[in-house]
């Protein structure tokens, strides 16, 4: 009984050690990736923003961005954001996804060469010692580089623990006996390990960590090369399932991008399974020519394996890269077809599907503060478009004299007012969560500007709703404005509309382009027009051109419009203050 309890705790200890090693590896990868995104985030966004509909450029961009920031998930977040913003078409995004698949194979090469052929674990602590002062630097960029080096070191410490915690074939023959039942089923074994790779990636939520585990298992002789390759194929499917799970709460564009990724990878794995044996023979011939070792014919239990096992991770990295490169070359011409299938899988439900929910920051794939701020800014741009559209209903309300249409417009404006309240609340909560982490001075300044902007935008929504209630009072009193009043209100509305247009132009473009002078000129025009209407109103009341009740409603309309103009200029001034701060 004691021996059974002892054996149980021994196995439990090994499992927890393996999970801990994997956790350490994941933490190092996360720290390294997030630090790189902080250093290169703006440049990466500029590269993606400059993308055209060229599929080849898309592939090259996907490779560059994913290789640089070491995270295909972060690349996917940016792709989804740009598709939503209309800066990247669905077809072009498929090209970037294909490139991201190739870029993510760099991680396997990094681990295979620096983790197995040349072990960097002995350098990890000195690297942490060197970078530790940078970690406490007040300079944001130096601090990010410190985080990157520490993450890099922790990653290889985790990899070393992973290598030690995964049992090798000689000290644990029982492990081989257990796996033998799964490895001797011919092509059935290949399919089983494809499923294992898929499930592990979904559970761990990182294809890089699953890849590291696969490399270690091959290095320790637990599974033969062909089944490790099958696990790699499963990891390609697993990473797309993770993205599709994240896109469940996202909008139509995000879902379509995730489905396109899934179609691309599943189709790739399908054709690869059809030629799997022949492809592995080609990889084996290549490795044999370079290293004089056969990955398919070496006996894992032989003493010779100890001398050549470091070649196996390199062979897997070759398989991973060559599969993704060939898959991209094969399917690049079919991007329009993949896009059509993705659209069929996720049909557009019409305006209501998109109009009344967050478009960007509810993708469920929040990665770093840099990407989070970018998403929030795009949401603010969308907020600006919504309140401008909301304002356009006021002109329709004034012109309309049919009761059914009137109540429909009133209901729509009320609904939009609720949307503006929710938008302000949700964007503010999102920005507050970001500000609780470690962010740069520039990011902090941008968050302050965004919070000020959404507060003023929400006030615009309240004022437009107030305008609709004033017009509704006019209708309830069975009164109407004369032609002169209609004409003057229309003229004022046109200037306010121009102010909206200028505000939205200033919000776009990462706050880089701002014409504060023009924005102020338009605001002065609104004030001047309000003063003109006020003076005419006083004169017309003296001449009794309309009833005092109609005059009171008329006065409220031009006063509220002037107030809207004040809130609009506040938005541009918040951007101007941000520019001065950075």
Question: Can you describe this structure?
Answer:
The protein is mainly alpha-helical and 582 residues long. The chain folds into two domains: 2-351, no CATH class; 368-581, Phosphate transport system protein phou homolog 2, domain 2 (Methane Monooxygenase Hydroxylase, Chain G, domain 1). It has 23 helices and no strands. It has helices at 2-49, 55-69, 72-85, 90-103, 105-117, 121-135, 140-165, 173-183, 187-204, 207-219, 225-246, 252-274, 276-291, 305-308, 311-331, 335-345, 351-355, 369-399, 403-435, 441-476, 483-507, 516-542, 548-581. Helix 2 (55-69) crosses helix 4, helix 3 (72-85) runs parallel beside helix 18 (369-399) and helix 10 packs across helix 15. The termini are far apart.
Search tags:
mainly alpha, Methane Monooxygenase Hydroxylase, Chain G, domain 1, 2 domains, 23 helices, single chain, 582 residues, elongated
